[in-house]
C-alpha cells in the first residue's frame, strides 16, 4: 500500500500513486480548503468545489434522480441502458462505467 505524505490518499497501484504525487509537486498546485485534495489548476479546484455543496440541479430524465455535476448525471444516465460491461483485468469483476472500474482498481489492486 502506498500512502501519500501530504494528504490521506492511499492506493495499491504504483502508477496511480505516482500520478497523485505529481499533483502535489505542481508549481500551481491548488489544495481544497475543505478536504485537502490537491488540483493542478485553479479551474479544476473550482469545479471540485461543487462536490462540497448540497445543490443538485442536474436531473435524470428517466428516474428524476438529481446530481451535483453534469458529469455525474452523464455517468448515471448510462445505467439506464444496456452497454457492454467493463471487466477488471485482475479479477474479472464487471462494472457499468469507467468511474466504478477505476474506483475498484484503486481500492482493490
Q: What is the topological layout?
A:
Blueprint: E1 2-3, E2 10-11, H1 14-25, E3 30-31, E4 38-39, H2 42-49, E5 58-59, E6 66-67, H3 70-77, E7 86-87, E8 94-95, H4 98-108
Antiparallel strand pairs: 1-2, 3-4, 5-6, 7-8
Structural features, described:
- Residues 30-57, 58-85, 86-109 form the C2H2-type domain.
- It is found in: Nucleus.
- The chain has 109 residues and is an alpha+beta fold.
- The chain is built from four helices and eight strands.
- The strands form four sheets. A two-stranded antiparallel sheet has the order 1-2. The protein has a two-stranded antiparallel sheet with strand order 3-4.
- The radius of gyration is 16 Å and the shape is flat.
Strand-and-helix sequence, N→C?
EEHEEHEEHEEH
Shape: flat
Q: Enumerate how many helices there are, as a single number.
A: 4
Structural class: alpha+beta
What percentage of amino acids are in beta strands?
5-15%
Main location: nucleus
Protein name: C2H2-type domain-containing protein
GO cellular component, one term: nucleus
Domain C2H2-type: 30-57, 58-85, 86-109
Amino acid at each position: 500500500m502506498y500512502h501519500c505524505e501530504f494528504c490521506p490518499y492511499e492506493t495499491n497501484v504504483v502508477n496511480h500513486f505516482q500520478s497523485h504525487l505529481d499533483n502535489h509537486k505542481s508549481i500551481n498546485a491548488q489544495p481544497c480548503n475543505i478536504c485537502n485534495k490537491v488540483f493542478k489548476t485553479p479551474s479544476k479546484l473550482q469545479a471540485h468545489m461543487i462536490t462540497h455543496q448540497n445543490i443538485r440541479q442536474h436531473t435524470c430524465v428517466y428516474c428524476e434522480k438529481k446530481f451535483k455535476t453534469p458529469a455525474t448525471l452523464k455517468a448515471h444516465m448510462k445505467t439506464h441502458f444496456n452497454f457492454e460491461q467493463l471487466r477488471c483485468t485482475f479479477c474479472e469483476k464487471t462494472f457499468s462505467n469507467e468511474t466504478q472500474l477505476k474506483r475498484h482498481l484503486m481500492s482493490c489492486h
